[in-house]
Amino acid sequence: MKTKTSRLETLKLLISSNELGNQEEVLKALRKEGFKLTQATLSRDLKQLKVAKAASMNGKYVYVLPNETMYKRIHKPLSPGEMMRNPGFISINFSGNMGVIKTRPGYASSIAYDIDNCDIPEILGTIAGDDTIFIVIKEGFSHEETTESLNRLRPDF
Q1: What pTM did the predictor assign?
Q2: Distances (CA, A) of 41 to 18, 44, 46, 153
Q3: Is 34 left (phi over 0), alpha (psi -120 to 50) or beta?
Q4: Alpha carbons 47 and 62: distance in angstroms, whole number
Q5: SS3 state at 62
Q6: If DSSP codes are grouped into helix, strand and coil, which group holds residue 29?
Q7: Number of alpha carbons in the 13 Å side-chain half-sphere of residue 35
Q8: For residues 69 and 32, is the Cβ–Cβ distance under 8 A?
Q9: Spatial distance between the Cα atoms of 155 and 87, rounded to a whole number of angstroms
Q10: At a CB cut-off of 8 Å and minimum separation 6, what does 109 contact?
Q11: Cα–Cα distances in Å, from 67 out to 16, 72, 73, 111?
């Protein structure tokens, strides 16, 4: 049985990547992802997520999330299952003692939090946006050493 947390995350991804205009469309999309729930449960989930309806670019009223920057609509969406299996990390690049980590929208803050709270000796600190993390490497440490330490924290680096 799938958990409520997983269902809510899938619901957010479905709403952010599809133009869903009514609860029946949402229930159908959730069923495709393996979630079987009642209309009443869906209503409670939508209320908990503070989902609203707004006009889309083509004038159709669709469900939207309150924080659009975290779950941006994308033109060629992966299925929610694929998105949830795909880590937030995209890439890392260095220049001198600085590094820039690119993430999926909404993931930078949580990844930077993990980095800051793991006391990685090579990293002085981070600054996170929505999909980018700026890291400063302490003097005397190489990019390879930094990447190895990040790999110990999160294997997807």
Answers
A1: 0.48
A2: 20, 5, 9, 37
A3: left
A4: 15
A5: strand
A6: helix
A7: 25
A8: no
A9: 10
A10: 128, 130
A11: 10, 9, 11, 19
Q: For residue 78, what is the DSSP state? A: P
Residue 54 is given by DSSP the state E
Q: How far is CA 146 from CA 16, 33, 129, 141, 155, in A?
A: 34, 38, 20, 7, 13
CB of 16 closer than 8 Å to CB of 73? yes
**Could you read off the pLDDT of 15-51 as tens digits, one per residue?**
888 889 999 999 999 999 999 999 999 999 999 998 9
User: Within 13 Å and on the Cβ side, how many CA atoms surround 115?
Assistant: 29
Strand pairing class (61-64; 132-137): unpaired
Q: Token pair 């990447």 is at which residue?
A: 147
What secondary structure letter does DSSP report for 90?
Answer: E
Kindly report, residue by residue over 108-155, the tens digit of the pLDDT.
Answer: 888 888 888 888 899 999 999 888 999 999 999 999 999 888 888 766
Going from the C-alpha of 112 to that of each of 71, 98, 105, 145, the distances in angstroms are 18, 14, 13, 18
Measured distance CA(52)–CA(40) in Å, rounded: 16
Q: In whole angstroms, give the CA distance from residue 8 to residue 147.
A: 33
